[in-house]
Amino acid sequence: MSHSKDSDELVFFVNGKKVIERNADPEVNLLFYLRKVIQLTGAKYGCGGGGCGACTVMISRYDPISKKISHFSVAACLVPICSLHGAAVTTVEGIGSTKTRIHPVQERIAKGHGTQCGFCTPGMVMSIYALLRNHPEPSLQQLTETFGGNLCRCTGYRPIVESVKSFIPSSSCFQMNGNGKCCLDEEKNEPEKKTSVDTKLYEKKEFQPLDPTQELIFPPELMRMAEDPQKRVLMFCGERTTWIAPGTLKDLLELKMKYPSAPLIIGNTSLGLDMKFKEVSYPILISPARVLELHTVTDTKEGLTLGAGLSLTQVKDILTDVVSRLPEERTQMYRALLKHLRTLAGQQIRNMASLGGHIISRLPTSDLNPILGVGNCILNVASVEGAQQIPLDDRFLARLPDASLKADQVLISVFMPLSGKWEFVSAFRQAPRQQNALAVVNAGMRVVFKEDTSTITDFSILYGGMGATTVSAKRSCQQLIGRCWDEEMLTEACRMVLEEISLPASAPGGMVEYRRTLTISFLFKFYLDVWKQLKMRDPRGYPDISKKLLHVLEDFPLTIPQGIQSFKGIDPQQPLQDPVGRPIMHQSGIKHATGEAVFCDDVSVLAEELFLAVVTSSRPHARMISLDASEALASPGVVDVITAQDIPSDNGREEESLFAQDEVICVGHIICAVAADSYAHAKQASKKVKIVYEDVEPLIVTVQDALLHESFIGPEKKLEQGNVQSAFQCVDQILEGEVHFGGQEHFYMETQSVRVVPKAEDKEMDIYVSSQDAAFTQEMVARTLGIPKNRINCHVKRVGGAFGGKASKPGLLASVAAVAAQKTGCPIRFILERGDDMLVTGGRHPLLGKYKIGFMNDGKIKAADIQFYINGGCTPDDSELVIEYALLKLENAYKIPNLRVRGRVCKTNLPSNTAFRGFGFPQGAFVTETWVSAVAAKCHLPPEKVRELNMYKTIDRTIHKQEFDPENLIKCWETCMENSSYYSRKKAVEEFNQQSFWKKRGIAIIPMKFSVGFPRTFYNQAAALVHVYTDGSVLVAHGGVELGQGINTKMMQVASRELKIPMSYIHLDEMNTVTVPNTVATGGSTGADVNGRAVQNACQTLMKRLEPIVSQNPNGTWEDWVNEAFTQSISLSATGYFRGYKADMDWEKGEGDIYPYFVFGAACSEVEIDCLTGAHKNIRTDIVMDGSFSINPAVDIGQIEGAFVQGLGLYTLEELKYSPEGVLYTRGPNQYKIPSVTDIPEEFHVSLLAPTQNPKAIYSSKGLGEAGIFLGSSVFFAIADAVAAARKERGLPPIWAMNSPVTAELIRMACSTSGF
Description:
The protein is an alpha+beta fold.
């Protein structure tokens, strides 16, 4: 960091140790400082914008007035280090480690199987830790709110939640079962079990108790600093920005007079985002956090006056206290504010964001400003010239100059009046997700009646999300004054509001009709809410409202999952030492929870190491006329700019280049890379590279564009069985249609990461990469540099989530870094920021499915003609394999005697789409389930009956002529029916729907036949290396990569069983291409299968060598035998190899035995939708999966749950949005919403089917990594069922196919053709 003699010393503590920073830079955030300056890498970079929680740490401060210490979680990526003066920071390293002791939070989350890849775990731990520091026995509501700011892509949240629930006293639980028993008492809630079924994945009795007395004390020195009466101005001067922190209000006002354009900064949750993502910079920042007047609270009979510097969490706590003490009629506005404060952003952001900052920023989607605006709040502002009061009204929120603060004025406090007896205030919002999501539209509404009447005397409505600012329906409200609160008034109000609050068709953000509809939906809800309250006050004075309508006033509750996980118990005869079949904790679980697990970017920076930032195309299809990097090269810290001309050999593969040459073919196409001494310098310089383009036609973005221009990759693929044409002549009905399936972002928590370290000799290089396929990375780097592969060693210790997105892409990115390393001679660190990662790397293939189905009136499907078109993007990548998989797996669980399927990959000007968990199956099988559901609707039959009727029943052959036995498919279906109480719950759903007009429930059960593996034999090979040392310890290496799926844990279990030694004897280090060469990608659900066979083979070789020694000394110990083998010169090292499953496909004949085995499953889901807003609540899901003999039930159930939740996101939440020119809008968690903890079904049950033999896989197990993602479609079809109920009641025709994802917008617009 830069040095200035004018800077003050910044003093704070980290994990009990004093930090004195003499060169504090205001542009440096706490996350960077922790990771790169003081080398505490537990907090992780996940998004850089406070949206994921991976960087969560705890900050503690001492209040000299109250004499209390406050602890709160924050997003370290948004905390400027200059704001930390006098604070104590606690990171995950500071609460416990394997070197000292682990904290109960760390222990429980690890032993409760709450970690998979582990990248999000430190953030989860610190959120929970901060909660427990404030509330050692938290309530479930507090826990729910705490989790809102933390995302996890692997686990599905259930095990995390469950492990932390152990801190909650059962008496405080509000999630009770039907018998009034606590959800924590699982054993008491369980259905009657067969003796062989187990439901305990861990033993709670082993958990160490939480002892608050053992926590770090707050540093006394900081208390003395806080109580120091000298409130002098602090100043910290950085490279581009100066931070000034006044200690008194007088100093603050003088500074604002001197620097009127300098923004005030407290929480940095708005300003920080602008500075990072919009590249806004300020020469002066003023921090008023130490000014006491900004933190005062005044409570009078008229209302509350809250200091502008109070955090939103503090505001929430104050309002909660007041609401608990005063009558409901007096706290109408406070209750409305509290409703939104529970879901606004995440807990970390609420802890940081200030009330004043939230108000002054006047964001168009602000959740609080519309409520404050209708509530007659007053802003108390001050300047050197004196104090002033400004109404917080529609004019202020519209940013009118005469209603806003002057440049030299500061917001000191906000007056929030209490409500009058005949005053009613409500708040509404609809967002893509319940928690931590900006609203699509929100509203604050207030009405005042003449005493003891329903005559309106005052009315105000403010909407957020309907324009560039918060907008008012002022004209409409004024015209309604004097009217009675009745249906006639409502009808008129809706008409007037729609006229007044208009949105042009091209409005930013799109969803115009949906947003307009929400404005009326909220008004209708307000009407009902007020009427209900009037009725309660005077039961005789107002007509009754039908209960069918009142259901809609009940907001979906914020809930977190509970459930039962059942699996086959261990055979009592199995030796205790044998770990196979036991729910063993993830091998790195404790290290994940303590932050000691090292990921690619956690390794310390080497001497002369450079950082890489890429320059990408801003045009989708254009010729590059010129590239001028001179200004970038002249920028501070820049060492070089790397382009295609610097590549020694191949510029990538024939079909996909590393750097664009002459032409760019998508927005995000890498053009060059800047190498500099810091990432900040590299990023700043990358903006200075000047590129002149000339657009090229045609521009192809969508599948429809590609069809129009006949733009394809590879030939058409086709499979056919039976006589399709003849069958269509013999059916009762024919259905034709099409359905669109949206893409999906991988959103692995660890972005693409690579470090390249060139060696001094023989052109050798070490590549440290976050990759599923180290050998491919090795091959790409060798080809790019023109050197043999034996000079390139790729290391993969662990990967922070992948899901297919780190199979091919890391090879290209590593090659870019390798070229930079070779040119500069320096180590290179290349870590993509989240926005760049999402822009550059592509994701799941969007699909257009067209179908023609012939069926009988009884629901029997006789013929199907299907066409698939997937959006491959600009290069082939894995797209041709994906379309093959989609066709091969399309039939799912159904026997269609006459079936023709064809598929094409469309070439478009989008970044190349690539492998993604499920690999074509989630798309193809979804289309199948769509037309099966449509057939049921056409025949007026229950969908489950049509599914059963068409399901495989006996040993048969798939469309590609592979024989299989569907016995376990039927068992999964029947067991799921039984476990879910399907028919009784379906009846309950129908009864609910009869009693509710605006809310509807739906239920669906979906079967699954998933084929495991790759379509080429050589893709299924694997190798391992096992060393036994003379002390008896064992080192295992294999060709699989630990992605979070627990492969290393399973390999240790295999080695333990085969060598008959405890797992504690066994260690796995990193995977690298020197130890195990020529590996294949870890994916396709086969990683544990094939590598397990290789490890087993190596261990059996060793045991065979030891046999003579063991037979001579049968009572000896393992150490005795090993040492004797050494003295007899018997090798204690062995390679293991598995040739792979035979897998061949003849596309000319349309047949082949491709897959070693099938995984069967079924899922039943129930949902409830709000027909006015499109919101939905996942009530319950039951999954039954055929896992045969699970090697590790905890790992396998975790994979099922995580995949299901990823599928839930795929089918209902996750929507990629592009401009017409192919520019990706959704480039981070603020725009792209993966499921959060409250999106998970409230009840979430997973059962492994009673095991049967599977001779193809090791120990008769099955690979379960991918299959569960498709079962997320059960939620989609439950929503479709609810929508169908709504349409039927309204007399609307059925919708035969709904597109995926079924977002709130789609649900709302499908429920009705108009506002009501």
